[in-house]
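During the reporting period the student researcher (J.K.) took over the structure-prediction task from the postdoctoral fellow and processed the backlog of single-chain submissions. One of the processed entries is reproduced below for the supervisory committee.
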Amino acid sequence: MSTDTTDWTELREFKDVDITQSFVLSWSMESGSLLIDVDLFLCPEHTYYEKPRPAEKSCYRPAYIEFPWCSKVAWNGEKKTKSVSKAIRTLGIGRIAGFRRTGEGQYEISGAFGSVEIIGERPMVRLRSHYIG
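J.K. obtained the following structure tokens:
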């Protein structure tokens, strides 16, 4: 692992959201891009923030974290090489505990589903039909 590590709080794509309060719902591949389907926690400063209804405590919106040109996904330090589409079939869901850039084009997301290493282009956050970042 590179010493060039950047926490998610320093990445512009995650401005005004809290990734550690968000949840992974599913993983998929589309046209060479890794898509992580999430319920994304929006902070009050976010453009699309809405005051939660009385029964809700926070503002969550359906979103995707997209890694264009994803070439590798490895779960819990897996060393065997397999296709990205095969690798994502083994990934679980749940709350996100952390996200960081570990080097040029290298990312790590961790949570209830374990630790997932991703190699791909810089991530984009898509909230419905909107892009952040």
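The committee noted the following: The two ends are 25 Å apart (CA to CA).
J.K. will present the remaining backlog at the next meeting.
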